Amino acid sequence: MLLLVVMALISSALGARLAYWQLGQADELRRQAAAQLAQPVSAEVRRGDITDRRGTLIATTAYRDRLVAYPDLLGPSARERVARRLSDLLALPADETARLVASFERRAPYVVVARRLTEAQSANARRLMAEGELPAVELEPVAVRFYPNQGGAPRTTLASQLIGFVTEDGLGRYGIEQQQHSVLAGTAPGIASLAADGVSPLPTGADIELTVDASLQLRIEKELYAAWVADRALRVSALVMDPYTGAVLAWASVPGYDANAYSVTARRSPERFLDPIASQIYEPGSVMKMVTAAAALEAGVIELDGRVVDDRAIIFGGSRVRNADRKGMGPITFADAIAHSRNVATARVAARLGDDTTSAATALYDMWLRLGFGRRTGIDLAAEAAGIATSPQDRRWADIDLANRSFGQAVAVTPLQLAVAYSAMVNGGRLVEPHVTAAVNGAAVDVPEQQQVISAQLSEQLRRLMAHVLTSVPVLEEHTAIPGYVVGGKTGTAQFWDAASGGWATEAFNYTFCGFVGREEPDLIIVVRIHEAQPTVRTKRGSVLPEVQSFDLFRRVAQEAISVLDLPPLAPDQVPPGPIDALPTPTPPAGDGGTDPPGFVEGTDAGNGGRGLSPGGP
Question: Which pLDDT belongs to residue 218?
């Protein structure tokens, strides 16, 4: 009886435990069993499309095949045979073939053989599977990022630095893809929605419409590529922007890269991923003379037709500031000093901004800040640089610092900051916030309210001064005039610090042009930069010009923009007066054999004996 009781108790305990597993834990056991038997696939998210302002597709989601295998379903003799057949299909090198064979020999339940097949590889795999050559092998469709438009240079996709790319793990890198990753991937608040039955579907990203025009972008990239080849430059960049709204219409740099094959660029030239328009700073040279002019005209220390003496040089202790041609033009108007890009005359006017160097430096620095230098513009792109603009309150400027900074040395900016500053100088004095995103899922993006940073009257003076620059110097007028349109702008040529040689580069220079083109008023701001180009034209002392000059490239870009954006010319009698009228012609003083008649010398603004942004400078 005792034995029967013990057996009954054991049986009851076993029954209770069995009931616990079969009834109480049935759902959880089914889930675990299904997880062990299920094929390990990942939920693919369809990333939102990127289009231009006209709806042209720039980035989209395409589908490619992933090649997978189930070695544990194969017999011993078939494993190595199938692995080597797959190796032949993919043209794998010997070491990768050995790893693939080893994974099959281990009877792994699931092996990813190739994450992304080409169309030809997919077709061959399907044929071999149908013929029975590849048992226990399947093709799984996976979403991949695809950039359908060829860029303006060989082996590039359109606007590669602006757009960026998406890695295999689905993360946006650089440009729009990184800055708007959560929106495009569908993880931003308010982007994903619930299905009708209350079950959350696979997330789908929002579509983004850009302000950029793809047709204009392509044409400009082609122009930049031609200049890049001709000038033997490190890079060539251009930016076209609406000066009233900050909408970017074209954003191009050469050389770019193929975003569909970003891994190739990552191995060979990863520096091409960095955007030179918003992420790289440099000393721009004489284009900053317009900022000095803005400070001087606002302070009333000189008028456009006021006189300033342009000597061969100014000495500050042991340092000397000289003009590019090492000569002086004597007493000239301030407008002509800017037009002929005279360093000495500009430095003299900058010194008038205050009673002493510190107060003058403070006035110039204040204009820098108001026009957007020394801080980020707020553009909706990743990795924007703030630039370098040293405050005289944080570090006192010496006389030579004020002189050098008045013509664009010892200050570092981005081309984007120049576009913003020049926009304010011609649009009535308002600081725009540049942007490249026009709409998300069809809803227009709000544009921030603009701040008035200079007066409308000063803006009009600066616009007329820019027009005077391009009409008073014959070579500039010849190379920039566009019949039926008003144009204006300023050139800049500057040396750069060569870390390899430990000094200022002497065989290559940075060339910049900032300007506007329009009909009754400026319609577009255009900034071009030729990075570290090797000059081929040396017409006179101090004149160092590349094969394709910055003002030539400006006109080419302007003409492409006029054509694509449909800006018809005005009749000659309708074009408003642009240049400053009735300014006297500069006359060299008697006895100064070192002066030149009015002409144009596009020379370097560095190497004056002052301190720039070198390791030894501020």
Answer: 98
Amino acid at 208: I
Q: In 10 A of CB 226, how many CB atoms?
A: 18
Q: Looking at the domain assignment, is residue 38 inside a domain?
A: no
Which residues 6+ apart lie within 8 Å of 387 measured at CB? Answer: 281, 373, 374, 375, 411, 412, 413, 414, 417
Question: Taking Cα atoms as reference points, which of 323, 335, 400 lies closest to residue 361?
Answer: 400
pTM for the full predicted model: 0.82
CATH number at residue 466: 3.40.710.10
- Contacts of the segment 306-311: beta carbons below 8 A, 24+ positions apart: 306/333, 306/334, 307/331, 307/332, 307/333, 307/334, 308/332, 308/333, 308/334, 308/337, 308/345, 308/348, 308/349, 309/345, 309/348, 310/337, 310/342, 310/344, 310/345, 311/344
The predicted pLDDT at position 39 comes to 47
Q: Which domain holds residue 497?
A: 215-258+280-574
Report phi then psi at 259, rounded to 5. Answer: -65, -20
Q: How many domains is the chain built from? A: 1
Q: Residue 203: its pLDDT value, please? A: 57
Checking DSSP bridges between strand 165-166 and strand 172-173, what pairing results, if any? antiparallel
Which residue bears the tokens 């004056």? 608
- How large is the angle between the packed helices 214-231 and 550-564, nearest 10 degrees? 160
User: Of how many residues is the chain composed?
Assistant: 618
185: tokens are 């991937």
CB 554 within 8 A of CB 270: no
Q: What is the pLDDT of residue 35?
A: 56
Residue 529's alpha-carbon distances to 236, 276, 277, 408, 490, in angstroms, are 6, 9, 9, 14, 12
pLDDT at 596: 33
Residue 501: its pLDDT value, please? 76
The residue whose two tokens read 């000066």 is 243
Q: Which residues of the chain have pLDDT under 50?
A: 38-43, 192-202, 581-603, 606-611, 614-618
